[in-house]
Amino acid sequence: MTDFASDVLPVMDEPWEAESMTIATPAPRHRRYLALFFPWLPAERLRLTRPHLCAGQDERPRAFVEKIRGALRLAAVDEAAAAMGLSPGLSMADARARVPDLDLFDLVPHEDQDWLERLADGCTRYTPTVALDPPDGLILDTSGCDHLFGGEAGLAADLERRLARLGVAVRLAFAGTPEGARALARYVAGAACDEDSAIRRLPVAALELEEEATLALRRAGLKTIGDVARRPMSSIAARFGADAVMAIRRIVGEADSALTPRRLVPPMSVERRFAEPVARTETMMTILAELAGEAAGILEQRGHGGRRFEALFFRSDGLGRRLTVETGAPMRDVPALMRLIRERIDSLNDPIDPGFGFDLLRLNVPLTEPLGASQLRLEGGATGEAAVTALVERLSTRLGRNRVRRFGARDSHMPEQAEFALPALDTSPSGPWTTPEPGEPPLRPIHLFDPPQPIEVLGAEVPDGPPRRFRWRRALHEVARFEGPERIAGEWWRRRPVSIELPRPGSDPGEVDIRYLLGDAPDHIRDYYRVEDRRGRRFWIFRLGFFEPDKPMPRWYLHGLFA
After folding, report:
1. Same domain, 278 and 217
2. Is the pLDDT of residue 521 over 50?
3. 0.70 surpassed by pTM
């Protein structure tokens, strides 16, 4: 599709119809932005990622539907459907009546988002600052990058060529603000001699205000952004609010607008470009090992090791593929890193497809940490820890980061809140574990029941004594020794209404979920005892409530087992 470069402005009757005219080169600005608009993104995503659904039906119009207010309506169409007069918002029944042979598919927003992110990864070959403009656009900060491609016109031509090879239609435009570039790429501009004039000749719809506000501006005779910008901003603010004023100022370049990149620029990056695309994945892995060696040398000079590594494979058609591996400790061991990357590749459901070949390979190290010199296998002291770390890294790479976890201590006196599980690769600090005094038994058991198990107490000392005997799982236990009570109440700094005791879903009605019993009412206070029966087994039990006249008897629960 025809694009907008530094010397070309689109002039068209619809956002996707391509005519253009030559204008003078705009005056240089502090920042330059490139906006990309993919008018047929859902249809192109379906054709490229699910070709079996489109086999032998390339000429048939397609549309994507979603339920809006209880009715099925078109959410997106392809170029053929748009040429037949179909547009988003049309009901499915009306669309079928107009085009009987219309192919309908369900709109899958998350798959479109994934496809847009793959396109964004491919655009990082031009600039590291790429922001998503969902559902069908990207915005690139090309400041200081366009000279590598012969200027803005060369960058636009290279991007067009790659996407055309992939079969993706794109509208693009350069401007000094993100909003200006986005508006030029998506809306119709009249004939203009420079960039500012083209922006001011855009329709008021480019401000993307509320539908009522846009209609009111048109009824007032304000057809273009320039018409609105010439009006006093005080009257615009009084009628349409401060957001409308800010939208006008940003699109004409009178107010700064920050661009939030999809990913931050990594502290270290190495890459390799190829004159001819490489079609063999094994060759790319060999080159990736060389890049890993270069990165290891740089990290060694800095006294750092990498905690996260990203390998980006750029195809010649503009798509990019990103592989990320994390390590449990800072490292710069190239063979170990390559083993992790191969493990990651083997675990992919969607293998790396070279397509037309790779023409750029990049290795980023977005997370580094200081790594001091270490001496391995001299005394054999660190070998065991290193082996455990390597095992955690391999399991996390193959199974997924959140599938391998470790426990961390949390600063809470509530037994069920004193620990939490976090990814084993996570470096988030946790509180220290409570250690018992030398020669003393642990204060907390290793295993806690969730929820606590109800027990039947046969005889208990009143008011604060432990049970003499209790029955748990049909077995009778006689208490020989005990310690306690240890009183645990709710967190007074998180006061909330008294909770209602509810049975845990799918459990016995007598089992009460302890998480419902964290209020501050007196009968929600727990008295814990460490008890040992005559066979030497140790239990952690608690009494819920107090012995009080004219009140129900307190209930007893088994919360944990000591080793």
Report:
1. no
2. no
3. no
